[in-house]
Amino acid sequence: MAITVNGMLPGPTLEVKNGDTLEIEVVNKAKYNATIHWHGVRQMRTGWADGPEFVTQCPIRPGGSYTYRFTIEGQEGTLWWHAHSSWLRATVYGALIIRPREGESYPFPKPKRETAIILGEWWDANPIDVVRQATMTGAAPNNSDAYTINGQPGDLYKCSSKDTTIVPIDVGETNLLRVINAALNQPLFFTVANHKLTVVGADAAYLKPFTTSVIVLGPGQTTDVLIQGNQLPARYYMAARAYQSAQNAPFDNTTTTAILEYKSAPCPAKKGINGPKPIMPSLPAYNDTNTVTAFSQSFRSPQKVEVPTEIDESLFFTVGLGLNNCPPNFPSSQCQGPNGTRFTASMNNVSFVFPQSISLLQAHQHGIPGVFTTDFPGTPPLQFDYTGNVSQSLYQPVPGTKLYKLKYGSKVQIVLQDTSIVTPENHPIHLHGYDFYIVAEGFGNFDPKTDTSKFNLVDPPQRNTVGVPVNGWAAIRFVADNPGVWIMHCHLDVHITWGLAMAFVVENGFGELQSLQAPPPDLPIC
């Protein structure tokens, strides 16, 4: 049994146009609290529709319902939606496809077909039980048992092969694949045997096209690629497997497949009974950081963009793991992390604690005291060799519900710095309510003296989720023009569970068009 939307896994695809206003009623017939997040949607002034539980709303309780209302403005390409409560998103997710406005077209030749390729992660268990067990023991959660493409694991597992996802193509066609990483905890490599992929967009923003044989997506990221039917008519595997940057950490090392099938392929090949097996691609090694770096450094906006330059808020956030010493009243069964500890995670040494009785946005809007403070540190409370050998005394972060205040219209730069506490790792960091420009990435400790000169302020890519390099850093810039409370968190759900998150309070500007709308009457009660 799995929690699904409308009985579908993945859930229904939403197909809309740039400029459309959406009303989506969510009825919770499950036994768990639920919310839905529209990942990457700007939600200008409609923070009440963003969806993260206890951030912009209280959850929709079992038996309850809530209608999400928002407008898509100036975004085209592929986004997605998913649950934003506990680990429900393991099975509660789907594609959100945004086409150009009526009368407008793609900045590339119109593809013959379009196919959403949604990469998922599957447990032979209830994902809610998996995270609850980990929270109880303090250990890392059990790894998944499979990855999936459009809900199917493919031919390389002991289970199904008759239902393997088939993606049609024919000789001479150019088709668009909208690839989404909806996996819970794993960045993934994706490739198609014998076919090149031309990257044309990511996170609902167009890119300067470039061609590659493999793409990599952190959880939360989307990538639009063109594929040409220029090979012998046959069947070719598409495959995805883990990019694992954390050393010595166990992970799901299985491979999910789908089949790219030429319509004019000879008949026996189609039945797959006695016909030849589809051609299998080679995939990068699990720890192939060089391929990841080369891929992310190929990203450019199609033309010159307006990157904020006069920075008002220059922030530096460490992101990484931690270990809490076993509390004196805990039995050892609740401290099964390394050497009798409990896993945790933090940004700038603050491990984020979600409120439990009211959402942050409601507390902000109604001026309710005691729910959060606005003293999140803009720089690490203690400077250290972030990617070096870190003293064990720095492994224990401070729990807190700390937010950072931004004035409306302020120009913000954030350097996100990975740490080697417990283990360095590539962290996909997602900012709600905004797109941002990734102006630079690098390895080691960020050095403003030498690294600032490497910033791309001409045509950096625009994204909503950035893969902070393992043992490295990424610099992002945006203008705080969307009032509300916006969480920024690691999109590896195991890490958000441990506290790898923070939130911004963006104040209202002047007048109605620079202010958060009033909360809708059906906002779930707390």
TrEMBL record:
Alphabetized CDD domains for the sequence: CuRO_1_LCC_plant (cd13849), CuRO_2_LCC_plant (cd13875), CuRO_3_LCC_plant (cd13897)
Keywords: Apoplast, Copper, Glycoprotein, Lignin degradation, Metal-binding, Oxidoreductase, Repeat, Secreted
Principal subcellular localisation of the protein: secreted
Catalytic reactions on record: 4 hydroquinone + O2 = 4 benzosemiquinone + 2 H2O
Domain Plastocyanin-like: 2-102, 114-264, 376-508
InterPro entries: Cu-oxidase-like_N, Cu-oxidase_2nd, Cu-oxidase_C, Cu-oxidase_fam, Cu_oxidase_CS, Cu_oxidase_Cu_BS, Cupredoxin, CuRO_1_LCC
Cofactor binding description: Binds 4 Cu cations per monomer.
GO biological-process terms attached to the record: lignin catabolic process
Needed co-factor(s): Cu cation
GO cellular component, as recorded: apoplast
Job description of the protein: Lignin degradation and detoxification of lignin-derived products.
Protein name, entry field: Laccase
